[in-house]
Prior knowledge:
Number of strands of chain B: 2
Number of helices of chain B: 16
Shape of chain B: globular
Distance between the termini of chain B: 28 Å
Largest sheet of chain B: 2 strands, antiparallel
Shape of chain A: globular
Number of strands of chain A: 2
Largest interface: A-B, 39 and 36 residues
Strand content of chain B: under 5%
Helix content of chain A: over 70%
Strand order of the largest sheet of chain B: 1-2
Distance between the termini of chain A: 45 Å
Helix content of chain B: over 70%
Oligomer: heterodimer
Largest sheet of chain A: 2 strands, antiparallel
Number of helices of chain A: 11
Amino acid sequence: MTQFILQIIANGLLSGMVYILMALGFTLIFGIMRIVNFAHGELYMVGASLVLVLYAHNGMNYFVAVLLAALITAGLGALIERFLFRPFVNTELNGMIMSLGIAISLQAAALIVMGPQWQAMERPVSGALDFGGLVVPYDRLFVGGVALAIIALFYLFLTRSRTGLAMQAVAQDAETASLMGVRIGSVSALAFAIAAGLAAAAGGLMAPIYSVAPYMGEMPMLKAFVVVVLGGLGSIPGAVVGGLVIGLVESAFASAMHSTAALIASFALVVLVVLVRPRGLFGKAV
Amino acid sequence: MMRQLATLLVIAVLAVAPMLIGDRYFSHIAVMVCLMGIMAFSMNLMLKVGQLSLAQVVFMSTGAYGSALMAMAWGLPPVLAIVLAGIASGILALVLGPLLLHIRGVYFVLLTFALAQVVNLILQDWVGVTGGNSGLFNIPRLELFGIRLARPEALYPFALFLFALAFLATYLLDRSRAGWVMHSIEENEDLSRALGVDVMRWRVWTFGLSGLMAGIAGGVYAHFIGFLSPAAFTFAISVNILVINVIGGIRSPFGPVVGAILLVPLPELLRDAQQYQLLAYGVLLIVFMAFFRTGITGFLFGTGPGQVAGLRKLARAK
């Protein structure tokens, strides 16, 4: 029994790490630009597809491929912010509709380029760690570890660097921040680039485990959505705690019942949280 | 005014065309234009009180499943089943309204999005009633005054009648005192409240009417296609009716009609290349949001009564 529970916790924490990676960017964009980015899942898909092309098709080193995919997607994110989202800052509904348009276009472009089928690739890490009956595949462990390192780096950036502090200032009060000399435009572009890079890194890390297809971004997008609403839109600690909670709850539900029940439970939780406490567990008062 | 008359004339010609051509395939598309058009009006009403609802598809599915099950289990005539299921969907919206509608802005969108996900997952999971993912088969066809409306050519005038009804309801509502109130709520909620408008009650009743429309559209869809599965009631419907509204234009009652006529036939034209249809939807959304935010009707007729018109009329009437 203890072993069963430990296994649930291990699985939950490892998937929680990836959810956090997705949720951080999603919540960062909302915090800075007040835009709910429905295209976030497609950035994950773009990252995974780039890894497929660079690593599986062109034989590039896997780690270099993931890094490069994240950087390219970050550049794409900055362009999207500059030309498509900038006019919609603080007009939440129109920004959301714009993000839907971008999501649909990216998905259609991927369908046209790659076709609808799932494409597998060779796993760069294989085998499993057997820790007294507690079985954890090395590739999941590797993904969890890298994700944790990225999250730690992001946290240091946000709390220690001038740029990170400027970012937090804009999220708290854009007007005051701009009076203090923060350039809102460049902060938004950078935030969008970072968010896109994080999503692409998550996609690139998961690509060998789940394969690659144009529709692959939908599920992680839904998960990030649940995590962020639970933790509070715009809240960074909320995204971290929310990611771990959802990872664990889902792992427990999926082991005890079936995965549809886990999905119903997590969306019902979202409905409840928005009704009772719209700002989520950690959201600031608006 | 001239432009509106011209638009009406073009729409009337297009509406009559399927009846003259009488082609099965053409009529099928025309029926779908009507049904999605009614769905678009259902979302349009909510946009008019300033709330983007992604839950209209929920009422479409309750109308569809409710009507199909009543006709199959109790042997009710389909027309009666559609009306009953439509009213039930409207009542469901009235009951949910007070709970959901005090949530505003982006949180309301997220709330309705999550709600639609829950309902669709329940449709998939509740196999005993809904048939799960394999769906419901052999749903009885429509019959009106003893005439079977199984073929799309026969059903089209009925669907067109309902579409015209949805248009007329929105048009009259827009012109009436209720329309001023709705505009004033969208323009400035606090000021409307100060003028004595019970904002919440208006919003709940609008939600109820939009639920009724969606329920009827769903019911007709069920008996028209003869088969139901959860895959027909996903987020894709919400996206479609949103695109119809954005491209047609939200302010004018002609908006959803123009949008539906232009967009619903698109998947049929690009039948062999679904990815290009998806691309067309996405690019159209981006282009219209970036350059023509008021949609085609906004471009044709101007932005209509202009800002604060509803508030001004309301204040004058007091």
